């Protein structure tokens, strides 16, 4: 008899903030494991903001896209023996058949990746600080912004998976760090992990906060949110400042007619020109060639006590949609993970 898996399908196109009724939990057969294939079991599943974008473009009826740390439970592929672990884009699914073709893909998004040597750290970090979001923080800060010790680094979405790692790496690099996040307890945590100044963007005036926290203005801005927040940061950028455009979550749930203003209205020509700003978007997969280098550096910083990680863990595969909606609403501190 064919084994069965559980999977969450996108069955309605979200309008604005996604709703639980946009997703349907189904049981489906797992294809047999043939030469070169493996069958994997999800150990923990990632919840990320990009899933909102995917929910806007995946054909209805598709399994929701997403990464997971998975354990090989059946194998006809010597590279992935039974019991080995991988980080794979198997989607919101518990048991997954990965064909030999899929395992050989050169598309980084679809690749099944080895975890770094975790040295006893939890496997789930392979989805966060020692995975995609950790490397987004690492390469976005060290390669796109390239801060110099003594410079002021501003981080938006600072208590999230990417932002909280950026805050800490910027401190390791000897910078002054200002973080903005959406609640007082997140602000308190940002101070605990080393931010020199932290603010709740829902209650402060961004300009007033920056006049106080960055009298010499901001040299590097790591932007996770875009929109009005970013527009209000721009007048406080220093001459020769750099902006790394990592994400624009403030616009992800906007209706189409609102979207243009939300996603493009951040940068005023005169700020950019007079202050000779460099504004650069980037994607984590640009750093594929240096992937393990980033993860090993992050792991070593954790082991040396220089980098703290926090996971927002939700138990139960049935909670995938709630957790996803929660992340879009700001429920998480650190990396959002579902343990099935
Ligand atoms: N370029 C890349 O390669 C790459 C890779 C990974 C992620 N990203 C982007 O990086 C950003 C952070 O991703 P993440 O995985 O670390 O997610 P995350 O920050 O852990 O979670 C999302 C957070 O966004 C904040 N948020 C939601 N709506 C907001 C709004 N209207 N204004 C300001 N903040 C809002 C919430 O925190 P608050 O409580 O603070 O509002 C929420 O906790 C996202 O924009 C994501 O798309 C880009």
Structure description:
With 340 residues, the chain is of the alpha/beta class. The protein folds into two domains: 155 residues, Medium-chain alcohol dehydrogenases, catalytic domain (Quinone Oxidoreductase, Chain A, domain 1), CATH 3.90.180; 154 residues, 3-Layer(aba) Sandwich (Rossmann fold), CATH 3.40.50. Helices cover 29% and strands 24% of the residues. The protein is built from eleven helices and 14 strands. Strands 3, 4, 5, 6, 13 and 14 form a six-stranded mixed sheet that branches. The longest helix has 14 residues. It is globular and about 70 Å long. The two termini are 24 Å apart. The structure holds NADP nicotinamide-adenine-dinucleotide phosphate (NAP). The site of NADP nicotinamide-adenine-dinucleotide phosphate (NAP) has 30 residues, from helix 3, helix 4 and helix 11.
Which key phrases capture this entry?
Quinone Oxidoreductase, Chain A, domain 1, Rossmann fold, six-stranded parallel β-sheet, alpha/beta, 340 residues, globular, binds NADP nicotinamide-adenine-dinucleotide phosphate, six-stranded mixed β-sheet
């Amino acid at each position: 008899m064919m084994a069965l898996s559980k999977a969450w399908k996108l069955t309605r196109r979200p309008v604005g903030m996604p709703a639980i009724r946009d997703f349907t939990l189904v049981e489906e057969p797992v294809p047999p494991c043939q030469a070169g294939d493996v069958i994997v079991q999800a150990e923990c599943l990632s919840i990320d903001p990009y899933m909102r974008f995917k929910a806007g473009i995946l054909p209805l009826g598709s399994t929701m896209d997403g990464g997971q740390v998975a354990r090989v439970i059946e194998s006809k592929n010597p590279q992935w023996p039974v019991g080995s672990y991988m980080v794979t884009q198997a989607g919101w699914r518990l048991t997954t058949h990965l064909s030999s073709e899929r395992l050989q893909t050169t598309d980084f998004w679809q690749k099944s990746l080895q975890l770094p040597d975790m040295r006893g750290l939890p496997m789930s970090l392979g989805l966060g600080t020692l995975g995609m979001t950790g490397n987004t923080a690492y390469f976005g800060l060290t390669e796109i912004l390239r801060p110099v010790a003594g410079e002021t680094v501003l981080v938006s979405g600072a208590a999230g998976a990417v932002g909280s790692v950026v805050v800490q790496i910027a401190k390791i690099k000897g910078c002054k760090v200002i973080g903005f996040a959406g609640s007082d307890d997140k602000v308190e945590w940002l101070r605990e992990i080393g931010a020199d100044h932290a603010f709740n963007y829902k209650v402060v005036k961004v300009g007033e906060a920056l006049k106080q926290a960055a009298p010499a203005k901001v040299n590097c801005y790591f932007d996770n949110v875009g929109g009005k927040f970013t527009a209000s940061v721009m007048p406080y950028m220093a001459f020769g400042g750099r902006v790394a455009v990592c994400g624009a979550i403030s616009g992800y749930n906007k209706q189409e007619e609102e979207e243009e203003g939300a996603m493009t209205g951040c940068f005023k020509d005169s700020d950019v020109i007079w202050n000779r700003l460099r504004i650069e978007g980037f994607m984590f997969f640009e750093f594929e060639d240096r992937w393990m280098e980033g993860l090993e550096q992050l792991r070593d910083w954790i082991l040396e006590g220089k980098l703290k990680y926090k996971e927002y863990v939700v138990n139960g595969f049935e909670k995938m949609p709630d957790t996803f909606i929660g992340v879009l609403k700001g429920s998480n501190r650190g990396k959002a993970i579902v343990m099935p």
